[in-house]
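Re: beginner question about structure tokens

> Can someone show what the tokenized structure looks like for a real chain? I only ever see the sequence side.

Sure, here's an example I had lying around. Input first:
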Amino acid sequence: MRDGPDVDRISLGRCGAPAGPHHPRRGELLDARENRDPVEPLVRRNQKDDALVPLAAQFLERFGYVEKHDCPPGVLCRHLSRALLRFQAFYRLEETGVLNLETLKLMSRPRCGLPDLEPEDIGGPGVEDSDPFVFGGTPWDQQQIRWFMGTGTPDIAAEMAAVQTALNTWASLIPRTFPSTATTADAQLRVSWETGDHGDGFPFDGSGNVYAHAFYPQDGRVHFDDAESWALADGGGNVDVETVALHEMGHALGLRHSGNTDAVMYAFYGGERRRAHEVDIKGMRSRYPQVVQTGANAVTIPLWALESTGGCDVVTVDLRRTVSLLAWGHVSMLDSRSDFDRDNAWAVEVFMVDGDRPGPYVFGGRHWGSDGAPSNVYTGAWAGRARTITFRLSVAHMQDLEAFGTGNILVLDTGGSG
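And the corresponding structure tokens:
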């Protein structure tokens, strides 16, 4: 994937865009099929169904799994079958490439309006169904990211406090603060409740489908659909503001959707989710590392991958000048908190050099993601000329394994900048 893509292209996507003259409503795709085997095919490849296939096709196109094609409407063609496979793989469903109840049930749930993929990303580096986290846009440079509340919702009086709480959750994980500001001119993030066509080219669709959408940095717009019933807690048909704000602010800071059902960045709403998962934490810290500045010629930085630290630590060392150097990571302690099995692992990496991810790297599977993804395991040592080195220490499951280590730099000369 291309880090820092064109904001207008990727952030505007089909986020909240209308899916044609008719949207599938929650449960509409299920009707009398509720008691079927969840993975039993309802429509097989090359079969025609004028009810289910068009609705599924609208969904798959809307959220980035397929581009428009010339196949007959209502037919589960090869394009739609491939798109279904990708959707099923992204969200950890049984990969069949056909329409079944399990797939349709997930499609019918309310969710974020941002696409999961862009069609031009399909098959591209670092944007695959296996990636635990993916970057979008260009990260904010400011240490203090100010936000402005525009139009609120009449449903509650404390929506601004709920949004601030969501931002504070991210602030507890990365070296950024999120104060509110009274004027939009001073704000990087602009939050508002909107309905229908609200001027960004991506109208909301009424109650029950898309709850909100946001735009990748450095755009800054975050919109909630005021057709929903908003509250300070989930239940009784109400939508929890803090849960949705935490997710959408993740987008506004530069994370794309995750297929991990426990992640904040999971696209579908499932009730209150106010704590970041380790996948979210690793993604956000990889996007916004702690920065240590030093002019020393020998540097050792402690790295902690504990449950209390979210299972990872990411630190950038800024040497204040470009020099020849040797950088490497070292793990001093592993603590197995349960059985150390094949589903666990740890890695200490030279994650970035002057802002670019170096090779070689390891990829594959649900932990490390596809070739070129930021979740790959990058080289453990690097030599060359640079000014900044970013170290990352992480474990695959923080409940099972904790680690302590160091990031180390030895300056080999004191050459001038270059």
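Each token stands for a local structural state, so reading them left to right follows the chain. The CA atoms of residues 27 and 402 lie 43 Å apart.
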